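Q: What does the assembled structure look like for these inputs?
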Amino acid sequence: MRKSLVLEFGSEHPRAMVLDDERHARIMTGRALRRKGFVVTEFATVADFLKSWKPGTVDVIIADWQLSADHADGGDHVLERVRQRDWDVSFVLISGKLGEAEDRAEVLARLLESGGARFVERGNSGIAKACAEAEALMERRDLALLKVILSLRAGALSGATVQTTSGEKVVADLLEEVVSKPSSSHNAERPVANAVASRRTRAT
Amino acid sequence: MRLLRGGRVRRRRVSYLVSGDEQIRPSHENLRKAGRHVRHDGEVNDDASTELRGGKCFVVIAHGSANGTLRWYKSSRGSSLPWLWVGMPNAPRNVRLYLYSCKAGRKLPRYLKHCEAFGHVDEVPMPTAPVEPIVLGYLAEVDRLVSASDFDQSAWRQALAAYVDRAYVQEVENPTGMLGSSALLLLRRSLGYPDLGQKDAFDATAPSYPRNRTPATLRARRRASQGCPGPRSRGCGKPP
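A:
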């Protein structure tokens, strides 16, 4: 894994989800990411992925474009659904067939629109390229927001709750609220970003 | 702020009133262990204006809601009843109230205009494990403000937010536990993000209306359409 990512994640391991209906490709991608130090979860169907994925709990999603015969299950549509709940998670779309498809422009436009997403053509060293793109996207993420996400993630993954006067606040819900909109993310990260900035100013 | 000889600040005693709700337990025990003066559950009078006597300082921990109602649970009764609410008759007067209750700060402090009342606009974490030390640390800051300083809602919010932000940055960068940053993020949110730079961050939670569509303008238009004079025409000599 890239040095900058190792520094940013500290003792934590970045988490990835791989969504591909082709078993061989899925296993290969998962293996490549694990070798780089990621904790990987693999899914064969969109339904399984959506059931398991919780916003803020993964750092990158690598999805195939053509996941089933159903056009609505395409990787670009998965990205749209992901973006409704997490505006910032890195997303890599991988496909060998998109090059020939008529709707290539439409799909690529969707990727561009969503931000934080890349397209990689399957084929020669496609998996290695996808992993490299994943790391490149992760490197570009806001460091202060990443720190906030990582500080909430352990609680979210363990299903922890915080007691309040109106019941229990589920930490996974709190994390989802943080990553759901840029404004919520900025509100959550502002003190951390300010502290980082003031340290930098002092250092210079 | 009252000063004693030698420039020391005169501090008033702060009493914690803690409702008996299941989700709030065992906050009262943890607060007592931390040396706070606590009245809990059935020890608190059903009538808020009898309990909240003039000139004293209270931190109230009870179930709150966005509509400005604070409910008190008594285990002997097995149910909760409204204790402080917007529109209540005989509202308490001349007390300093810190409403450490979810969302109670949205409407209730404005209604309790004869009190020095402060509240939170969102959910607040309870001083119970595993976030007990973090919340008790925050409540120590609350005690310091409530017992010593002059009441200034905006200054209090700024001071508390500054404390929360410091603790939050520390917790995010060097976590002491799994839920520390979650509790501090809830506190930061419940203070209405004073660092947004708004004049009054609590206004961010109030509904905003487009120009000429505020409730007052709509009421006036309705009255006019029904042929009734608006409040401004009262006393102008015209018949209603």
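The CA atoms of residues 184 and 207 of chain B lie 26 Å apart.
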